[in-house]
Each structure stands twice: as C-alpha cells, then as structure tokens.
Design brief:
single chain, mainly alpha, three-stranded mixed beta sheet, two-stranded antiparallel sheet, 9 helices, 67% helix
Length: 260
C-alpha cells in the first residue's frame, strides 16, 4: 500500500470518529434522556481520546515526513498533507488524558447548562464553567502563543489569524455600529415599536412548514437532497449530519410573537 493511500485511510478513520462524535453530540442536545448523561460523557471522552491517539500516532508523523515535499502530489493532496501537519503538530502538545478529560467536562457542562437554563439558576452551571475555563487555560499554555492567549484558540477556527489581525475589522465595525445604535435609540423615543396583538402566536405546524421549506430550499442550493427536519423539544435549534444526511431540529413549542 502506498504512503498516499495509507495516509488517506488514516485521515478517513479520524474523520469517521469525528462524525460519530458529532452525531452523539447532536443526540445529547436533542433526544438523550437526562439519566444518560454520565454514560454519554464517558463515551464522548473515550472517542475524543481515540481520535487524538490516531492523530498523534507516530506512524502518521512518519507518513507526513515522507509525503511532504513530494512532487507527485496533486493540489488537493498537498493541501491535505499541509493541513494535517498543522493538526498533528498542535495535537502532539496535548496528552490523550487531557483530551479525554476536556471532552468529558464539556459533555457534563452541556447537561448542567441545559438544566440551569431551564431552572434559571446560573450558580448550578458556574462550577462547570470554571472547570472549562481552567482546562482551556491549560490548553492555551500547552499550545503556546506569541502575543495574546486567545491567539492559540483563534488559530483552531481561523488558521494563521491572530487577534491583532482582527482588531482593525472590529474597530471599523465599532465606528459604524455605535453611532447607528445611538440613532436607533433616539428614534425609538419618538417612534416606539409597534404593539403586537395580544394572543398572537406562531403555531407549531406553521413553524414546521416554514422550517421545512427553508431547509429544502437550502438543500437544493447545497445539492444534498431533501433535508430531514426533526421536531424535538430542545433548548435550542440544532443541526448535525454527514455528507448527504443532514439533520435539523427546531423547538416544538408554540411561540408568542413577542418571543420571536
């Protein structure tokens, strides 16, 4: 088996584990009974460690070294090797135990947040938030950074970008949005928002019809066929899926106009 084929198979295996994590996470936010939280957290932690171990596998490092600089790779293959090298180098800075601990903490925090939000009790979620912040700080220190700590996290979502790169963008937005907000607030003094009829609601069936049509229109644009819309009572709308099998959920509670 060639190095290219072996490398691609490794990447596919890691992607498959990520898909399983995504589906289990989606289920946790929508369908999973509350009593399943502990077991689900343990499974998510195990999968996170498994994926991490596959990423930092010494064989993967050797494959990267052999593939880098080869002149028989096409543009897509070069990009795959280049991007996975970045992932490999960052992943090797974290232990599998840390990755597992972080994944379980996130899973437990999600369940705690759902209950705390329902009960309007932030104090119940606070310990979980503090633990996530502390673990995130450890992750930042392991990754390392040159200017600000958030650069280490930003690079995970916008590779190569830093806080300094984004400062001019947000400064430009602030210069335009602050005066606009001021004008809106001033205008509301003389032109208050229109009052909505008492009792005006958006029935579940109407919400479902609108959401399904919107989902199908997007499916046509993205060429993924008809999307499956799941009506589930959940804290928030959610979407998850693999190529060709997207899932979308929505809150199935009738909404008053003032809540929209």
């Amino acid at each position: 088996m060639s190095d290219k084929t072996t490398f691609l198979n490794h990447v596919k295996d890691i992607h498959r584990i990520g898909s399983i994590q995504g589906h289990l996470g989606w289920d946790q936010e929508t369908l999973m009974p509350e009593k399943g939280a502990k077991s689900r957290g343990e499974i998510m932690a195990w999968l996170a460690a498994l994926a991490h171990q596959k990423v930092i596998d010494p064989e993967m490092g050797e494959l990267l070294e052999r593939l880098e600089g080869r002149d028989d790779l096409d543009e897509s293959e070069e990009a795959n090797v280049r991007e996975f090298r970045k992932r490999y180098d960052k992943a090797t800075k974290l232990s599998a135990d840390f990755v597992s601990t972080f994944a379980q903490a996130r899973s437990e925090a999600l369940v705690a947040w759902q209950k705390a939000r329902k009960d309007a009790d932030f104090s119940a979620f606070l310990p979980h938030l503090q633990k996530l912040v502390e673990l995130t700080r450890q992750k930042i220190e392991a990754y390392g950074y040159e200017n600000t700590p958030y650069d280490a996290l930003l690079d995970e979502y916008e590779s190569g970008m830093t806080v300094e790169d984004y400062d001019p963008l947000f400064e430009g937005l602030r210069e335009r949005l602050v005066p606009l907000l001021k004008r809106i607030l001033e205008a509301k003094k003389s032109n208050p928002d229109p009052s909505l009829p008492d009792g005006l609601t958006f029935p579940v069936d109407n919400k479902k019809h609108f959401a399904q049509r919107s989902a199908n229109e997007w499916a046509l644009i993205s060429q993924q066929g008809e999307w499956m819309l799941r009506l589930i009572r959940s804290q928030q709308a959610s979407g998850q899926g693999i190529h060709g099998s997207p899932h979308v959920t929505m809150n199935s509670i009738p909404s008053h106009a003032s809540m929209q």
